[in-house]
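Fill in residues.
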């Protein structure tokens, strides 16, 4: 397996089980991770660790925020942040909601570990 990309990933999801699975998968390929269960904690974690965090996995349907709104707030803190949009809704709807916002990858729930790893590695290797 290729070496782990540089930079940590912030996992933003309001479901504890999803956060745990994502944390386990990313840890298995030696990617440093941070976790947040809502928009406010995501902003706090990113603000405190913006020099380490290269990307985030953003649940598009958080209980306290729409993903596209949080995307904008995250990019205000870290303009080069790579965002992986995650959702159980159709990819076309996510793309429509995000408009011209750039994403590093789209992760549909449910996901396989292999697809997740491939998507994250490919997205992290892209240059902005």
């Amino acid at each position: 397996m290729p070496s782990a990309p540089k930079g940590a990933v912030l996992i933003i999801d309001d479901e504890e089980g999803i956060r745990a699975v994502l944390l386990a998968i990313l840890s298995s390929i030696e990617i440093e991770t941070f976790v947040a269960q809502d928009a406010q904690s995501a902003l706090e974690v990113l603000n405190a660790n913006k020099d380490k965090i290269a990307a985030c996995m953003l649940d598009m349907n958080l209980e306290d925020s729409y993903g596209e709104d949080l995307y904008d707030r995250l990019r205000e803190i870290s303009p080069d942040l790579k965002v992986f949009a995650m959702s159980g809704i159709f990819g076309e709807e996510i793309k429509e909601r995000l408009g011209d916002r750039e994403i590093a990858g789209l992760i549909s729930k449910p996901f396989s570990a292999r697809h997740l790893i491939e998507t994250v590695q490919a997205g992290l290797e892209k240059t902005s």
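Strands lie at 8-12, 33-36, 53-59, 61-62, 65-66, 82-87, 105-108.
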